[in-house]
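Progress against Task 2.4 (sequence-to-structure conversion) is shown through the following example record, which the project officer requested during the mid-term review.
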Amino acid sequence: MGWNHPDISLEEMMELIKGFVDILILASGYQSSGLLAHWDSDNIKRAFQWALFFENVFRRLSSLDVYQESIEELDAALFEMTSHPSFPQGLAHLSSATLRRARGFLSEHLLHNLPLRDSHLRAVLTAIIEMDLSDLSETEHDCLNAYLNNLTLQNRICTRDSITSSPDVTPTVETEKSGIDNFTKLAVQELFRRQSSVSCISSIEEGVDILSNAVRHSSWTESDCSLFREQMKHENLPDLVRSADALVDVVTWNRWKSRALSYFLDKRTIRLVSGASLIFSGTNAQWGKVFGQLNFSEQSGNNDLHEAIELLLLGCIASRWNCIIEHLMSVSYDSVTISKQYHVLANLAFGQSQSFHQKEEIIKSKEGGILDYLMGLLGGQLHLLWKSSPSLAAVSLPSWSTLFRLYLSEIETQFKGNPSMMRCCSCIQERIEHKDCELAERIWCLYIFHACGSEMIHGACGA
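Structure tokens generated for the chain above:
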């Protein structure tokens, strides 16, 4: 029988829902142009009235068996709408069940803005208080006193729950006198959830700071390195291994490791990873449109182009973030020369073969789409890639990619001292071995991630 509501057609209902989706997008804090969305209390009240309308409609539909087929047909139409590539990914779970709690859904978007500006919070609180007072005025002679009594009761329940519950659990606000959620109750619930989230984020940032500082101060000193060399002289090792010139010094190894970890644990990097994870959670068409609207220029003074490259590289590894950190933490000193590391990488790159099916899957993958876009953005200017952190470039370029081969080819050119448009060190001119220079560090990073952590690079280790 399908949709059979007597007062409104399915097409009309879908148009109303699309209008509510626009409200939710603005409630999230930004306009489609990327500019901040400014809400006043009157517009917030209008938005909540729309939410209340949907709650009433869908709760009534859900309570009557005769409308079950209508609900199913509506959910099918909503699924088709949310599956469209241009539909906002943050609202992809929109359904009739979501619309039955539309006010709470709207409250989430209004109060989980980042940052939550004072003017915005003031407008939200003004709107919900005025709406609750208006509702109470229909049943209470002294609506203000009744509102304050309800607020006092809610505060007691929140205090009780915060004392008896785990710190990780957000207190729930229940009014014992009414089964209907008032606007203040919904707002308080969302503010508690926000406070809990902010508390968790602060704890994580504090832990990351401690770990990052520990990493920075854990590098070996020159005296430690001298002691290690002295011990090596008395070990039964081949002459080549005993030669300090043939090895990467322990202090250099640990400095590179610390530098890589410091980059990945930096607050700025973590924020970029979080942003990249959100941006690239959409389809290639969606995030491609976002980047396409930006005007990148190498000559721009704000380094937009370099930040875009960094964001794309981080997008390739966002899903493996935890694994990358764990791998770096577990890497211990290995007495392998830079020359040996380079030859291992060269064999890895040019000795790898893949079936047609594997290549096809790669092309279709999200990582492949990001790398293709990055390839076009670079436009043959590979030197732009060298402005990125050596550890980021190493871990984000899979060995099957064209960019990896181009990157390694440039490393080979500089390693052998052949003519190149860019030169990251003066070792060739000074006739010394690549040992403690940027080129050596870039080779080391590639070796650590591709030769010592190939299972992570190919996605065997999930994060």
